[in-house]
Amino acid sequence: MKAHFLKLNQLRFIDALKRKGKLSLAAEEMNISQPAASRTLADIEALVGQQICTRNAHGFVFNEFGDVLAARASRVVAEVENIGRDIREVADGLRGRVRIGAVTAAAIAYVLPASVALRAQAPQAQLQVDVEPSLTLMQRMRAGEYDFVLARLSATDDPAAYDVRPIGEEVLSFAVRKNHPLAGRGRLAFRDLSPYDWIIQPAGSPIWSTVVDAFRAEGADFPERVTYSASALLTLATVARTDAIAPFAREVAGLLMAEDLGMRIVTLDMARPASVPAYNLILDKGALLSPLAHRFLSLIEAEMPRAIR
What does the pLDDT profile of the chain (309 residues) look like in tens digits? Predict the structure, then answer.
């Protein structure tokens, strides 16, 4: 096996074929002919000493050797692209691209105001913000897709590999439509909420676990009529049109209740608070942040004391 002799263009080809799934599409991305792409694949397999993929009616399917090789190739290609990005951005620190991920509460409380400030300082900057559950964000973080994330480490993440900066717990609010039977009632217990329909994030998510624990702490029955969805849009539509109850991070609920949005959403007055465990600002210890990413990171950290107040 001579995998260490693989060239950068061959790694780019592996990455393209894995993503595209078809030889013609990978060849088009690499700007080479299909016969040249076939020869490239053959050369790669000769160096690796293993077949890495097979062709079926839908394209190419990678085997376990190919999956390992493609994962490494993707990381190398991303790092090489980062070299060029960093060199360009060092010139002024105000251009380039920042890619981050955040859970919903962090996106609204910290990322949104920081992005407004960044746009004022660096009008030409390209900013990508993905709002996803922590599990998805950390999978993409491991793949090298983000400069940093505001999320929670998963059980499979090695804390030693990351610079983890705690932010704070995520306080939940329970949203209903304005004319809901429980709206306006004070000091509600979770058992008061049991008879109603619910729409909540999928089982196993941090919000789901917190809600389950809250019902259990009161000895109350968990609701029987539950819709599980990670879609904020579906959740909001369900709450607005039915008597369903939905847990949101406090920051999200505050946005939904803003008068200028006209959502007619209110939150219930609960006797006992419910909080999701703290999320963190997470950076890869082995990654070098660009000047622009450093700028955005500083702007986010500057928002944290304000949000806490």
Answer: 676 788 999 999 999 999 999 999 999 999 999 999 999 999 999 999 999 999 998 899 999 999 999 999 999 998 888 887 777 766 666 778 899 999 988 999 999 999 999 999 998 899 999 999 898 999 999 999 999 999 999 888 999 999 999 987 889 999 999 999 999 999 999 999 999 999 999 998 889 999 999 999 999 999 999 999 988 889 999 999 999 999 999 988 988 887 666 678 999 999 999 999 889 999 999 888 988 999 999 999 999 876 544
CB 15 within 8 A of CB 69: no
Q: Is the CATH number of domain 88-168+278-308 3.40.190.10? A: yes
Q: Which ranges constitute the DSSP H helices of 161-227?
A: 190-193, 206-218
Q: How far apart are the first and last CA of the chain?
A: 59
Cβ pair 17, 26 in contact under 8 A: yes
What's the pTM value of the predicted model, to 2 decimals? 0.65
In the chain, ranges of CATH 3.40.190.10 domains: 88-168+278-308, 170-276
CATH 2.60.120.380 for domain 3-76: no
